[in-house]
Amino acid sequence: MRAALALALAAGLLGAGQARPPAVVRVAAAADLKFALDEIAVRLSRRDPPIRVDATYGSSGSMHAQLRQRAPFDVYLSADIGYPRDLVARGIGSSRDLFTYATGRLVVWVPAGSTLPIERDGVRALEGARRIAIANPRHAPYGRAAEAVLRSAGLWAHVRPRLVMAENVAQAAQFGQSGAADAAIIARSLAVNPALRAGRLLDVDPGTHPPVIQGGLILPWTGSRAAAETFRDYLLSAEGRDLLAEYGFGPAGD
Amino acid sequence: MDWIAVGVTLKLAALTTAALAAIGLPLAYWLATTRRAWRPLVDAAVAVPLLLPPTVLGFYLLMSTGPDTLAGRVYARVAGGTLPFSFAGVWLASVLYNLPFAVRPFAAGFAAIDRRLLEAARCLGASPVRTFATVVLPLSWPAVLAGLVLAFAHTVGEFGVVLMVGGNIPGVTRTIALAIYDDVQALDYGAAHEASALLLVFAVCVLALTYTLQRRTPAV
Fold first, then answer.
1. ipTM greater than 0.90
2. Residue B139 clears pLDDT 70, i.e. is over it
3. What is the pTM assigned to this prediction?
4. Which residues of A touch B169 (CB under 8 A)?
């Protein structure tokens, strides 16, 4: 009996040695990372040893609310450094595990056939839009930035009744792409998606809104700290920064 | 197709249905046979998820089972984790939310049984459990089966409660309904179409089965 057990254990160990399962990093990610993080996940899965990234996307604010309830994630990637900072201030995580990884940029997106003259009038062209999709400013950093852009253009009061509030910025992009809204103010990182390339873009002047400083935090209850740190280090490496730049993010600027 | 999400969905639906059979059958039997004055209150408590937005149940569950609450601390001590954003948390939410979908058909089936048959069984010395197993169930099985099928199907189609309490975690709480929500936001309409078509076909089949069961009354 004991010999059989020992044999089974040895076989188990041998088996484990042959095909080691990849370390898993569960990421609570801001919705603007949707496409960039998919690419990062592919690259990390090819590394030796491989790391599997399991991402859940949502608005940074709803992720923050979940993490205050100790949601089982290893890393939090917020679109606004304020949220992970707030977690640290509440005793969740250490300031050593806090990092900034990018600056978010905004674009105004309209379908290819739109009559809104964004090329000529810039953001002011939105004055003629019937429905404008933005992320919900109450809990989405890109929503707050979009609100600031509209305020800077002097349009806020005028367009307010025409705003469609999405749960997060990816949903705002979807509202625009599907034609449900005739314009959307979204993250540049989402506009690289093939389905959105069919539209027209206007880069928003970063001076018209407070900077979207994207920050993250390794969560104190992570069960795979080594893999979480490898993930963070990759994000901050030259390759990681280049990849984020390809997806339209600005440098972290710290 | 996100087969991991399909697996999570089936597991959640199966466990929810099992729990509803265990809790719902005795509860429904009690509701169908009792003459207590406060029965309407229990009826209302069972039926309230039909009217309540899922966000209300989700909000209360989050508030009452979080890591800093009494229930949360007890659960952490016993199970070593937190209820929100875990499979167990979604399961609990799902059982509460689906209570009316199982209990109401059960109770309707039980109430339709001629009380004289139950009284006869008791007079002949059968225990309540034996009466239930040999008289009540054989006479009401279509209603019981319909309740179980509805509860299973409704769990498969659940969205709001699962999103709020489960947090959409791949392999843990991301059900097929949440995977569709994600697919749409990722502009992956192909994947959303596939999963949606699957759920549509499933829902039609389930309803057809339920209506077939409801027409069927066992010979007395």
1. no
2. yes
3. 0.84
4. 26, 54, 56, 71-73
